[in-house]
Amino acid sequence: MKILAVPLVAAVLTLSVAPSHAASTSPGKIGVYASTVSATISDPLATVLIATIAKGKKKRVLEVELAATLTGNVPFAGLMTMRPIVNGLQLMEPTNAGSTVTATRFCGGSGGGPLPVFCSQSYEFWLDLDAAQAAHPGMFIKQPLVIEFQLGFGAPGSSVINVDGVATLRARLAKK
Fold first, then answer.
1. Which of 64, 109, 166, 168 could form a disulfide with 35 if both were Cys (CB 3.0 to 4.6 A apart)?
2. Rounded distance, CA 84 to CA 123, Å?
3. What are phi and psi of 2, to 5 degrees?
4. Would 1 be classed as within a structural domain?
């Protein structure tokens, strides 16, 4: 048992000091996963991950789950914001007056000086591909579905800063 413990500890230490990277299963046939441990998050929203499903299909719903964790120090409390973009458009549900809901979460605390932050958020979105195709002919059915994960951190009237973070994206096609 001791013999197995040493290689396991060595493997864990190797992973913890390995350089930051992004991983993806793109393009996927019916599902795709992407992640990065080196997302630079700032204000305004910026694309931190892109993943592709090879072809949209009739009678399907695209389900997208986004998750992010901010780490490090920030000079002020602010909002972590995330949203998905599919084929360049904000069409995912839930919507608010026709625009994709942007998921937000307050991060940080009160007080002066840099604030340590460990803030996580995940959100699920979906898109009826038949409805999206009807509204935007030729863009979704039998076309690649390029999913962007846009992520940001900021506060009204604050200066732009960069925050380190981890981001993951999961997308899949489901039958209606």
1. 168
2. 10
3. -65, -35
4. no
Q: What is the CATH number of the domain that holds 156?
A: 2.60.120.760
Per-residue pLDDT of the chain (176 residues; tens, 9 = 90+): 334 333 332 322 222 233 345 789 999 999 999 999 877 777 678 899 999 999 999 999 999 999 998 877 776 777 888 999 999 999 999 876 666 678 888 887 655 556 666 789 999 999 999 999 999 999 999 999 999 999 888 776 666 666 778 899 999 999 99
Structure tokens at 84: 């998905």
Let me know if residue 58 belongs to a domain.
yes
Burial class of 21 by CB neighbour count within 10 A (0 to 12, 13 to 18, 19+)? exposed
Closest CA to 64 of 88, 37, 84, 36: 84
* 40 domain-assigned: yes
The reply to whether 15 falls in a domain is no
pTM of the model: 0.79
Sheet containing strand 60-74, edge to edge, reads 22-24, 31-41, 163-175, 60-74, 115-128
Q: Tell me the residue range of the domain where 113 lies.
A: 20-175
**How far apart are alpha carbons 161 and 152 in whole angstroms?**
10
User: What domain count does the chain have?
Assistant: 1
